[in-house]
Each structure stands twice: as structure tokens, then as C-alpha cells.
Specification:
Hypothetical Protein Ychn, Chain: A, 5 helices, about 45% helix, 2 domains, alpha/beta
Length: about 150
């Protein structure tokens, strides 16, 4: 009887293990059916290089991801023409590459008004939204976007 119990337990464990393995594999196969929808929030350009690296990594493992970068306050600065990181590397090169992969870069128009900045000061890949924080809320609440703050 003890041997039958052990055999039954072993068979049950194997069945559960196989079921979870199959479910995990099915979930991986369905990842591209429902791609990630993510909004990256940048409100300080000192975080921009890390954000761009995170987004590049995200797109490398999930090329179908729908990614929006929302910038406001000091976070808009890395999208300005000729903006460079601490090492002197231009931001626009990475931004252009990511835009070609479907990533969008939104700039808050309230920030532009408050800081007396003009759209002509920014790279062509930049798009504009009336309010950065309102856009973050809309994407999360109504768009189903996950929020990431690098």
C-alpha cells in the first residue's frame, strides 16, 4: 500500500509539473499576441541615459512592446537638439533608433510654456502632449499601460 501511495504521489507531481510547464510555454507563445504596453516617465534628464538603456533592453527582449516615453519638467532636456549625456554622447542617436522601433517620445506643453521653450529647440522625433502628468494618468488608467520610472 505504501508503494502505491508513493507511486500515486509521484505521478501526481509529474502531472502538475507537466501542466505548469505547458502553461508557461503557452504564456510565452502568447506574449506577442498581447504585447507589453508601457509608459516610461522621465521628469529629470539626469535619468535619461538609464531610461534609454532600459527601453532598448525592453525592446530587445520584446520587440512588439508598445512604449511611450512621457517627459516633463527637467525631463524634456534630453530631447533638445544637441543634448548630450555626461560622457558627451548625443541622446538623439539612441532616440532615433528607438523611434524606428516604434517608441514614441512625448513632451509636456505646460513645461514648454513654464520654461519659455520653443518646439523648434527639440529634435524632430519629439511629439507634444498638453500635459505630461495628464498623459501619464490617461495611458495608465484608460490605455492599460504599465508605469516605469527609471
Amino acid at each position: 500500500m505504501q508503494t502505491n501511495k508513493r507511486s500515486l504521489i509521484a505521478a501526481s507531481c509529474l502531472a502538475v509539473s507537466m501542466a505548469f510547464g505547458t502553461s508557461a510555454h503557452a504564456a510565452d507563445k502568447n506574449a506577442n499576441v498581447h504585447p507589453d504596453k508601457v509608459v516610461y516617465h522621465v521628469n529629470d534628464s539626469s535619468d535619461a541615459r538609464a531610461a534609454l538603456r532600459n527601453i532598448t533592453n525592453h525592446m530587445d527582449v520584446n520587440p512588439e512592446a508598445q512604449i511611450v516615453v512621457v517627459t516633463h519638467a527637467l525631463g524634456v532636456d534630453f530631447l533638445m537638439k544637441d543634448a548630450r549625456d555626461k560622457a558627451g554622447n548625443p541622446y538623439h542617436v539612441t532616440v532615433e533608433q528607438l523611434e524606428l522601433r516604434g517608441v514614441t517620445f512625448d513632451i509636456c506643453e505646460i513645461t514648454l510654456a513654464n520654461r519659455k521653450l520653443e518646439k523648434s529647440q527639440f529634435i524632430p522625433e519629439a511629439k507634444y502632449v498638453p500635459s505630461g502628468v495628464a498623459e501619464l494618468a490617461k495611458l495608465q488608467a484608460r490605455g492599460g499601460y504599465a508605469y516605469i520610472k527609471p
